[in-house]
Amino acid sequence: MLLRPREVPLGGPRAMTVRRTLPQLARTFIGAWCFVDHYGPDDVSETGGMAVPGHPHTGLATATWLFAGEVEHRDTTGMHAIVRPGELNLMTAGSGIAHSEFSTPSTDILHGVQLWIALPERDRFVEPGFVHHVAESADVDGARVAVFLGDLLGVTSPVATHSPLVGAEITLPAGQRLQLPVDVAHEHGLLCDSGQIRVGEVAAGPGELVLCPTGARTLGVVAGPDAPARLLLIGGEPLGEQLVMWWNFIGGSDEEVRAFRADWERERQYGGGERFGRFPQAWTGTLPAPELPNVTLRLRG
Known about the structure:
Layout: E1 2-3, E2 6-10, E3 16-22, E4 33-43, H1 44-47, E5 51-57, E6 60-68, E7 71-75, E8 80-83, E9 87-92, E10 97-103, E11 109-118, E12 129-134, E13 136-140, E14 143-149, E15 151-152, E16 155-156, E17 165-172, E18 177-181, E19 187-194, E20 197-199, E21 202-204, E22 209-212, E23 218-223, E24 229-236, E25 244-246, E26 249-251, H2 254-268, E27 272-273, E28 277-278
């Protein structure tokens, strides 16, 4: 199945535009991956870059992966980090965290993906945390593969996850074919970043994602004949759970998510609190939560 993106503003009135392929009506999860935003390459002098003030998350982990540029991350665990190309930044929200994301002054071109991973019910309220990892790269039959989560082609990421996952950046020369041995119990998504790719009979261009169900032992990927192709492979065991996803929150019910929103709006007044932690001193503002709909938030998955 080919999932085409829709354009979405990210981060308030000065929002940059991202191309979102997950979630959508046709699909909510790929394994536990529940959110895929693809952005750039953007000239920061024209677009303003990324400027997302402090905002909350619950019940998920965020994975930031860049192709170009830098993003400054601050969160309510006290973590302050610079996100760079080829380096995974995995932030686990669990019971509640808040963070900000701003492209750095030295960034000219910003280009990357923002991914969310739904935490299984047993781990939804784990303590928040942050992991930085420089991904190991390998040359495979002329392709360049950087594995940032899980196992692929003999490369294993040391980053722990709450469900079986895989994540990798793959660069193929023009016309190159690559056979990827994958876990037969995993479903996979292949997000085309640049160039053109074909997976089986399905072709995809920049921002489009090819969805592959469980049951495959290998995935054959072919780059278009005219230019190199770069893609992101994500996958994992089907989550097998139903969750409520609204704004930046994941919860087990409508009532739970409404409580998260109320906690955030209250803690915004006091610079933090019990659920989302103490706000960094560098923050000059935070994002207000949208108004909730006058209907019960539905379960997905």
